Automatic annotation (TrEMBL):
It comes from Polarella glacialis. Residues 1-16 form the signal peptide. The keyword Signal applies. Residues 87-202 form the Glycosyl transferase family domain. Keywords: Signal. CDD domains: Glyco_transf_25. The keyword Ribonucleoprotein does not apply. This is Glycosyl transferase family 25 domain-containing protein. Pfam families: Glyco_transf_25.
Amino acid sequence: MLVVAVFVLLYGPAVSKVSNVDATHMKSTFQDAPAQMTSRRLDLVGTPPQGMRAEPSSTEALLLGKDMGMRAHTQRDTETPHVPSRIFYINLGKSTDRRAHMEMALSGFPGHVERVPAVSASEVNRPPFSNYMRVNGLDSHLGSKTKAVQAKTASCWLSHVLLWERLQSELEPQDTALVMEDDVKFPENWTRALPETMRDAPDGWDALKVCGWGHYRQADVVDDNWAVPRWPFYEDGRMLYAGSCGYIVSGSGLPRLLKRVLGQEIKDIDVAMMLPEEGTVATTGLAIYEQRPGRRLLSTGGFGSTIREWGEQYSDYNSIDMGTTASGSVTVTKVVGIFFYVSGKLHSVDRDGRR
């Protein structure tokens, strides 16, 4: 009876079930939710509605991905990463409608949920943010953009990077956290799918993108669920690996993610997180994977972009230095100018990615 009593005291409190969150199922997975953490000023980028979903993978694509060494690499950390019990969503102070959306959707999550205040565009040239602007500088291809787009792009980049720097000191190597922007759409069963997502992830990962839009490239395929997000960002009339609306980071992988992104000029954060065109885990030191269209844990949509106006060009990465690789070489990729509309009204895409 004593054992039963102790068990009830430790695990008995019920977790209310709310819209979009299956808290009852997740209670056993997220028992050890950490104490409330202090916030720090960070930002978000609004991403377009989830884009084109590609066709199912073939055996040939699976073998190709394995042959390229995308999946098979040594587990670098002795501890198996935990299922995330901490969620951090990035939200601008003025975006009260987005905050209400996220708080409603996550109110029943049985772990730690924290709003991370966003760096605003008006703050990027003030200390301490101006230090990053001075050291990293803006990507040259943002030069053709308006001052407003430049500042908003930088504020988004800063928001994600500053959160990573904070979590680097808070997470143990085996700990994980789910980072979101504030326009995420939550399937009803997403909490049930989260542990499965972790189980299916490639070994030794540093970051897992579980929300985004756009296509994938056959040569980047790891297996039926995952691909390696690599440049070019636009190919054969399609955008690939776009969005940073949701991703999982591990305590052990954050230093490698930071090294990768801080080694580049400031640009769209989803672009900065990608590997070079010929990059691999071995040459870049970063094991980042993205769920393939149709397999994504979360989706995005319902809100417009906080960076660009409707119909404004996304970027002009015609030739961009994607940073120095682990081997010391510099990879340069070329991509034609990309034009897309941030409202899903101009591009009607169904769940299978067909226009």
